[in-house]
Amino acid sequence: MGGGKLMYAYHFLKHRRMCLKYGMYIGLNAVGKGFFIVHPGFIRIDSWVHIGENCTVLPMVLFGRAHPIDGTEIFVGDNCYVGTGATILGPIRIGNNVTIAAGAVVTKDVPDNVIVAGVPAKIVKYKI
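Structure tokens predicted for Serine acetyltransferase:
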């Protein structure tokens, strides 16, 4: 077995163990560099979700489809923070430098440099 195949097998098994141990799933190539999970817990990020670089996600976050059959994709920009219990339903685009408050339900596109909160999520503050 070549070095590349061995490393792939190692990372595959490590990924699988984390998914089973902590009740979370992160699809292949779904997250960018610097992705950070504060506390492992229920988090589901399928491969049709694209999260940018340096993003932080807290436990109990769901990235889902508004309709299960459509070819929905969710795009999250760089430097975003997603609070505990947030739900993001696509198709949707979330800009760069966005903070999503705990428990927010995001169903519409979010521009850059804002804080959103509520059900449904609304802009509560613009970042400078």
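The chain has one domain: 26-126.
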